[in-house]
Amino acid sequence: MLMNSPDASDSTGFPAGEVARMLDRLARLVLRLNTPGELSLTTASTLATLDRSGPCRLTDLAARQGVTQPAMTQLVSRLQESGLAERAADPQDRRVVLVRITAAGRAALAERRRARGERLAVLLTELDEAERAALTAALPAIDALTRLLPDDAPASPGVPVPEPSRH
């Protein structure tokens, strides 16, 4: 249930603060769907970015994931050692190294999604039909919300949020 409070609403009365709190709770739930030994959130997020966006420079990948370049270098090295990603020269500029997901990386990502989907399905059985229908009805809006900041936008507090469109 949304609790509308003065600090939680935007100028239209939409409870943006409460939605943000619920999304935080949802993010924590998603984190808890992991089991020991699975890909970490950072690893999975990095592989998913490479899967969606294609090969990219390590510096760009670090900016997209909101981590430092040295941290991303270490992660990519571990991914490469595990066979989940690889480094390759940019065909346009042989001096530039691109990182790309491998077939094994795609398979690991798909397996993670499958396993998490199974665990989520168990939780969803605890909801009544109306609650499940409400979640299903919200999927297009959640998808639209996630598309407001593109994958190539750096993940940092300094990233400006796009101006709302006037409908």
Strand content: 5-15%
Percent of residues in helices: 40-55%
CATH topology of the domain at 40-146, which one?
Answer: Arc Repressor Mutant, subunit A
Pattern of helices and strands = HHEHHEEHH
Return the CATH architecture of the domain at 40-146: Orthogonal Bundle
Please report the total strand number as a whole number.
3
Query: How many H/I helical runs?
Result: 6
Structural class: mainly alpha
Please outline the major beta sheet: 3 strands, antiparallel
Give the C-level CATH assignment of the domain at 40-146: Mainly Alpha
Q: Return Rg in Å.
A: 19 Å
**Average pLDDT value?**
85
GO molecular function: DNA-binding transcription factor activity
Pfam families: MarR
Protein name: MarR family transcriptional regulator
Organism: Sphaerisporangium melleum
What does the secondary structure layout of this molecule look like, with pairings?
Layout: H1 16-32, H2 41-53, E1 56-57, H3 58-65, H4 69-81, E2 85-89, E3 97-101, H5 103-124, H6 129-146
Antiparallel strand pairs: 1-3, 2-3
Helix pairs in contact: 2-5, 3-4
GO molecular function, one term: DNA-binding transcription factor activity
Pfam family, one: MarR
Domain HTH marR-type: 16-144
